[in-house]
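cron nightly-structures :: item 1 of 1
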Amino acid sequence: MLKIKFLSLLLFIAFSSTAFSQKLDINNFIVKESLLKNSKLAIIAADSLENPLEQINGIYTFTVSGFSQSLRFNDGVAIVPLQLERSAFVYIKHINDSGTHSKLVYVYKKEGSLSPYTVNSMWLVIIPLIIVVIVFLFRKLLVLGIIIFLILLYFNHSNGLGIGTFFETIFDALKRLF
């Protein structure tokens, strides 16, 4: 009888400790400049209303511009170890049980400070479609449309948004839409 009570107590302790140690999921995040102003980005876990979730602690895996990073969250904030040398597009993605959560951020660097701007992925679809529609409506603007499209591709590529990341961003946005 004593063995059964002891075994029950051990099972209770084992199950209760795993219930309290479960990691919370990160389903949304905010990208800001690190408080240290060291050309690094901070990822802040947030709820759907963009309110920080301070109870997020532990190690979570994110993909930052194609590189897998294990980020340590303390009170809902993690610092990306990669330093930015210049303005660039940064594609941040986190996959968990509830799906893929990603953001495309344009980080503008000026005089050592970073200003991240979240880019709506639908603009990556809408802008080329507008150029194509204008070219089809006004055939005389074909050369101008091609030049604008090439400038857009060059700007994206030179700032770190390659063709693969471009399409991955669009597909993730379309998945979230449907």
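cron nightly-structures :: done
The longest strand covers residues 99-110.
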